[in-house]
Design brief:
The protein is of the alpha+beta class. It folds into two domains: 189 residues, no CATH class; 124 residues, Histidine kinase-like ATPase, C-terminal domain (Heat Shock Protein 90), CATH 3.30.565.10. Helices cover 60% and strands 9% of the residues. It has a five-stranded mixed beta sheet with strand order 1-2-3-5-4, covered by helices on one side. A hairpin with a 4-residue loop joins strand 4 and strand 5. The radius of gyration is 44 Å and the shape is rod-shaped.
């Protein structure tokens, strides 16, 4: 949305009492020129009519002295010329002058109506009411000073009051319409700003999610690289076959890490409107492959999956996979050479339970492979977001245990069977 046009900024509620800006658009110049032609043109014709009696521009007024005609012409000229500045700071002084001059002026009548109409459009109702009342008073005094031949006093006052009321109502309608347009424009601009803010927030949330996903995916791969590189470092007398095997694992892990990174970064470029999860998104069906990768790095993994992975909902399966992946990664980092037992069990009624155990390393956790210290924190948050819980720590049996529980919503068929049994 574009900015509010300068000529309409005075319509805002906070600017109702401030003078309108003097800068005019082409449309304003055309309207002001037309108002000047109408207002000052009537002034010239009415003065000529009063002096010559050859025209019928004004009614047959009672005898008007020549000096009053010229005074009337001067007043009409001032009002007519003032129409060019009726949008600026001179509006209120010009309106006051018109209210006083309307007591006797004939030539300045139409120009005075244009000024009153401008007050109705550009100022609040209280200001308009004051000038409308002043106009009605002037209208009541005018027939006493300059009576019209052949027309009763009440008829002259009535027609003048009708014109004043019509002009005020017309200006109020235009003012209300412009205020409505400004209000709608302001609402549209606010809605656009809020939409941009929501988009920025969504981008921030998505980038945070991607950062967590990158940690979960890459930490596992890089820990494998570190372990194999460390094995080559501490075994300088390794046989060419062992070196080739370790190099092959390092190459494969590096290639897979790059592939995972490419897929995660691809989320930034992919425009998925269906709300589907972006790859990589492994579930419980990928646990055997995950365990095999750890075994290839020399970690003894005992995987015990007592459920059918395909029966677990995708969201629960993804969260469980990340928990197991982080548990194996931590075991390789802080307890290298130990055996890790992974147990996954549960049911739709009881939920999904994950238990990862490994012996506490002698001498305390190793710091050979540095970590960010946020892996378990991220897992705890992931479990909480999924509606579950996660705990970890050292047991009296001198084991490190990472246990988690995730809700297992029953699928539609299970729910239907349970309902039928009930």
């Amino acid at each position: 949305m574009g900015k509010l046009r300068p000529e309409y900024r005075w319509l805002l509620p906070s600017a109702l009492e401030t003078p309108a800006p003097t800068r005019r658009s082409t449309r304003d110049w055309v309207i002001d020129a037309l108002c000047f032609v109408i207002g000052y043109g009537f002034c010239v014709l009415a003065t000529w009519d009063l002096l010559s009696d050859d025209l019928t521009v004004v009614p047959e007024w009672h005898y008007t002295p020549t000096w009053l005609v010229w005074v009337d012409f001067a007043v009409g000229t001032v009002i007519g010329v003032g129409l060019w500045w009726r949008r600026g700071r001179l509006l209120i002084p010009l309106a006051v002058f018109c209210a006083v001059a309307s007591v006797f002026t004939v030539a300045g009548g139409p120009a005075s109506m244009i000024v009153l109409f401008t007050v109705a459009v550009h100022r609040r109702f209280g200001v308009l009411a004051a000038f409308a009342l002043a106009g009605l008073v002037s209208n009541a005094l005018f027939p006493l000073l300059r009576p019209e031949d052949g027309r009763p006093y009440g008829q002259t006052v009535g027609w003048g009051a009708a014109f004043i009321i019509i002009v005020c109502l017309w200006g109020m309608v235009i003012r209300s319409r412009r205020q409505l347009v400004v209000s709608l424009r302001d609402r549209a601009e606010r809605a656009e700003s809020e939409q941009q803010l929501r988009v920025a927030q969504a981008r921030s949330v998505e980038r945070t999610r991607i950062a967590r996903e990158m940690h979960d995916v890459l930490a596992h791969r890089i820990s494998l690289l570190s372990l194999h590189a460390g094995a080559l470092e501490i075994k300088p007398d390794a046989t060419p076959g062992e070196v080739a095997k370790a190099a092959g694992v390092i190459r494969a892990s590096a290639h897979q890490a790059l592939q995972d990174l490419r897929e995660v970064i691809g989320v930034l470029r992919a425009d998925r409107s269906d709300g589907a999860p972006e790859p990589p998104q492994p579930t419980l069906g990928a646990l055997p492959a995950l365990a095999e990768e750890s075994r290839s790095a020399g970690v003894k993994v005992n995987l015990d999956v007592r459920i059918e992975p395909a029966a677990v909902p995708d969201g629960t399966g993804r969260a469980a996979y990340r928990i197991v992946q982080e548990g194996l990664t931590n075991a390789r980092k802080h307890a290298p050479g130990t055996s890790v037992r992974v147990a996954v069990a549960g049911s739709p009624a009881d939920g999904l339970a994950i238990d990862i155990r490994n012996p506490w390393p002698i001498g305390g956790p190793s710091g050979a492979i540095p970590g960010t210290g946020t892996g378990l924190v991220g897992l705890t948050e992931r479990a909480l977001l999924a509606g579950g819980r996660l705990s970890h720590g050292r047991t009296p049996q001198n084991e490190f245990v990472l246990s988690a529980w995730l809700p297992w919503p029953p699928d539609k068929k299970t729910a239907e069977r349970a309902g039928a049994a009930a």
